[in-house]
Amino acid sequence: MTEDDSRYAAVRSRDGRFDGVFFxxxxxxxxxxRPSCPAVTPRRENVRFHPSAAAxxxxxxxxxxxxxxxxxxxSAEWNVRADVVGRAMRMIADGVVDREGVAxxxxxxxxxxxxxxxxxxxxxxxxxxxxARAQRAHTARVLLQTTGLPVTGVAFAAGFxxxxxxxxxxxxxxxxxxxxxxxxxxxxxxxxxxGVALRLAHRTPYAAREIFGFLQxxxxxxxxxxxxxxxxxxxxxxxxxPHGHGIAEVGxxxxxxxxxxxxxxxxxxxxxxxxxxxxxxxDLDADPYAVTERxxxxxxxxxxxxxxxxxxxxxxxxxDEMAVRAVLGQQIGVGAARALAGTxxxxxxxxxxxxxxxxxxxxxxxxxxAGAGLTELGMPEARRRALRAVCTALAEGAVALDPGxxxxxxxxxxxxxxxxxxxxxxxxxxxxLGDPDVFLPGDAGVRQGLSRVGATVSAADRWRPWRSYAxxxxxxxxxxxxxxxxxxxxxxxxx
Length: 495
Known about the structure:
The protein is built from 22 helices and eleven strands. The chain is α+β, with helices and mostly antiparallel strands and 495 residues long. The longest helix is centred in the first third of the chain and has 19 residues, at 128-146.
């Protein structure tokens, strides 16, 4: 079988594992779909495949109204890959092209704009401008169908440079005008006070109970809160964003393949960035099939993987914040680290214009913490120096924790800072940079988990490239819900 024959087999079986990995284009209808589209399967000779929605759009195909291929989870390949294409895709998703242009993207990557264009086009059939335009179109559709914002306002909030460009793009992709697209949705529109309601797609299975529990145990007062009971919890937090700030709300009780989300950005131009940061926090673009294929077959982790299908490795909504919290959490328990972070928020955070439930502040900016005495924190002076050093490096750009940062180079830069050792650098690589293959052999929770399943550190080599997920299975092995008896304590350093 050719690669396209294998793809067609996935389309015939409506295999959702490939949603976002490639797109099915039907030449007789001019429509492109996700592989799992429930519509009638087209004949093989009428099907073409493209690696991205942008490439399908560039080839003249319109998005299917039934399966909405523009709303699929992102390809999990970009989480794994550390090369220039993987880094570029993570940055484009975060809105770097919209904010800084192709030149800004290329500068962050350390390549020329021409090299970035060539590599993206070779692998994805579209360059950075086309990929960003496809993302803008999806953002515009969400705004048109969920808010009462004027069409002109939607165009500029989604990142389009002109109304003409906006209208042409929407007609090409959705085969109708923006006003017709809004009317077709049939949804009640809001004035913005109720936020932008979204369904955040993910691949199933998804271990929502575990990830909401992980976030609840670490929720910092003032910037995070968890309401409701297990099974129906709602996680809320403040978000610093490029053009302002926002509030994000994500529910545990979603549907098959999605979590409910509501966002309140102070500037709608930040909607795309806010969505991507929430997606990274909840690890919504992960590939649970690939993870389970490796870990489920392992004699040590197999039972743990079977007990918690779809376990995720949470990322970070604000990487700089995560760096500060990682230093605060060195050598202390989860509760103590949470309390320290809450003290820091109350003393140095930026107050919201008005409290929103338990949310009162934005996390302190690194520029503020870099020169602060931090005497309000009850921790050794050596750790305060380490905290100031990290904040100075982030504020001055010596260390970058953005989604497309070079993971190896960033880890080396972190380790060169005073007070930053392998645990802190590795933890940030896993959470702030979203690396799926991090293992922390010196972590107390990992050692407890290994002991309980009767394994040694050397077993971790079998779990590549998914050691971050293996680590979460080991951490969960020490909780009451796991297949083994709970330990007396959990992590010593995880913020």
